[in-house]
Design a protein that fits this description.
Blueprint (H helix, E strand, L loop, with lengths): L3 H21 L1 H12 L7 H22 L13
Helix pairs in contact: 1-2, 1-3
Length: 79
């Protein structure tokens, strides 16, 4: 059985490739990704601002893509 976290992580990867990279461009995406993953993080203030603007829409797209693979029911009462 695929773990739910794996499904969500896979959906994030798909959404980064499908939606985010075409908008940012590969160079800027790689720059932000490298700075974010550096230890310690080397994000500039402008990169942090851009990352904050990117994260919520990316997560929404990722959950949208993941819902068919998860055991989720959406009714008038909610999720």
């Amino acid at each position: 059985m695929i773990e739910k976290v794996d499904v969500i992580n896979s959906s994030i990867d798909i959404c980064e490739k499908t939606y985010l990279i075409p908008v940012l461009g590969k160079d800027l995406y790689n720059e932000i990704n490298a700075a974010y993953n550096a230890s310690p993080s080397t994000l500039t203030d402008k990169q942090k601002e851009l990352l904050a603007a990117i994260q919520n829409p990316l997560v929404n797209f990722a959950f949208y893509k993941a819902i068919p693979k998860l055991n989720v029911s959406i009714t008038t009462n909610g999720i």
